[in-house]
């Protein structure tokens, strides 16, 4: 669980899958049903915003209470991985159809193979569109404070041979004003019944900018990210992270702090983008329009 909380394992789909695999591994190592039930509930609290974690653990809980629970847990965990691969592929197929030839796309955080079991969600769409010859450039937000865009998305795109340019988060508005962005693609950690989307902090800013500049703003996510029981974005719990993520940086090189020692910090991991700013929700089942969401598609 420490790896999940510390974001060594991150990305809504991968968080849920990793937690499921951990339970299966603990079961194979001889943990009792009661011990596994406690571990399951502890894992549930690790990342409160990512609903994929809750959905996967609900399925693992059903397996846990089967008579022969050890093989049931292993089977269910492996099934979840296989399903996620298929979901990602379906999202890529549905989303790439929206990408026009020569598109210059902007993406935020990391939503590729490092965040899922498959090709990814938003980044999977971009990769598929590149394979189809329709991407001329990808603007990669560095994604402060933990730089998932700069560290992970840039690396993935480079490995895939997708042309990209890394930017700071604050450069997006300037690019949009200059007409350098044709569409914005992001993932999601939770989608409420009314279509509001919780995603990495900074997503809402991009949605506002895209709306102002008349640029399509798409959310790509599997059905496991839907939360029909959550009425709207106000009901989504937003995880608060450590101040040290904002006041400095740490790594194999050591730790560097640039803010004053007594600096007060506000560091939410996610923000909520209202449904009114979203052009389309690209799921494994296809593209959902704002009209469909307004008519209760996700409820």
TrEMBL record:
GO BP terms: L-methionine salvage from methylthioadenosine
Transmembrane segments: none
InterPro entries: IF-2B-related (IPR000649), IF-M1Pi (IPR005251), IF_2B-like_C (IPR042529), Initiation_fac_2B_a/b/d (IPR011559), M1Pi_N (IPR027363), NagB/RpiA_transferase-like (IPR037171)
Statement: the UniProt record of this protein carries the keyword Isomerase: yes
E.C. designation(s): 5.3.1.23
Organism of origin: Enterobacter cloacae
The entry's keywords: Initiation factor, Isomerase, Protein biosynthesis
Pfam family of the protein (one): IF-2B
Name of this protein: S-methyl-5-thioribose-1-phosphate isomerase
Encoding gene per record: mtnA
Function recorded in the entry: Catalyzes the interconversion of methylthioribose-1-phosphate (MTR-1-P) into methylthioribulose-1-phosphate (MTRu-1-P). Also catalyzes the interconversion of 5-deoxyribose 1-phosphate and 5-deoxyribulose 1-phosphate. Part of a bifunctional DHAP-shunt salvage pathway for SAM by-products.
Family membership: Belongs to the eIF-2B alpha/beta/delta subunits family. MtnA subfamily.
GO MF, any single term: translation initiation factor activity
Catalysed reactions listed for this entry: 5-deoxy-alpha-D-ribose 1-phosphate = 5-deoxy-D-ribulose 1-phosphate; 5-(methylsulfanyl)-alpha-D-ribose 1-phosphate = 5-(methylsulfanyl)-D-ribulose 1-phosphate
Top EC category: isomerase
């Amino acid at each position: 669980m420490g790896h999940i909380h510390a974001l060594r394992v991150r990305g809504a789909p991968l968080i849920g899958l990793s937690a499921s695999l951990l339970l299966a591994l603990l079961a194979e190592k001889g943990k009792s049903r009661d011990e596994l039930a406690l571990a399951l509930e502890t894992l549930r609290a690790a990342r409160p915003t990512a609903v994929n974690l809750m959905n996967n653990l609900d399925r693992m809980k059903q397996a846990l209470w089967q008579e022969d629970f050890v093989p049931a847990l292993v089977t269910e965990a492996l099934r979840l991985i296989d399903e996620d691969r298929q979901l990602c592929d379906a999202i890529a197929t549905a989303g790439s159809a929206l990408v026009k030839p020569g598109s210059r796309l902007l993406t935020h955080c990391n939503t590729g193979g490092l965040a899922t079991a498959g090709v990814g969600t938003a980044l999977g769409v971009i990769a598929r569109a590149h394979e189809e010859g329709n991407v001329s450039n990808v603007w990669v937000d560095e994604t402060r404070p933990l730089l998932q865009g700069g560290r992970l998305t840039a690396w993935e795109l480079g490995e895939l041979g997708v042309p990209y340019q890394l930017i700071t988060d604050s450069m997006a508005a300037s690019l949009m004003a200059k007409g350098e962005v044709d569409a914005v693609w992001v993932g999601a950690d939770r989608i409420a019944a009314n279509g509001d989307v919780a995603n990495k902090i900074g997503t809402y800013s991009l949605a506002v900018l895209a709306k102002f500049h008349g640029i399509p703003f798409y959310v790509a996510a599997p059905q496991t990210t839907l939360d029909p029981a959550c009425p709207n974005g106000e009901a989504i719990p937003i995880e608060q992270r450590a101040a040290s993520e904002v006041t400095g940086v740490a790594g194999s090189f050591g730790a560097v702090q640039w803010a004053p020692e007594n600096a007060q910090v506000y560091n939410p991991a996610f923000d909520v983008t209202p449904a009114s700013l979203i052009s389309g929700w690209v799921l494994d089942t296809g593209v959902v329009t704002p009209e469909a969401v307004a008519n209760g598609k996700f409820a």
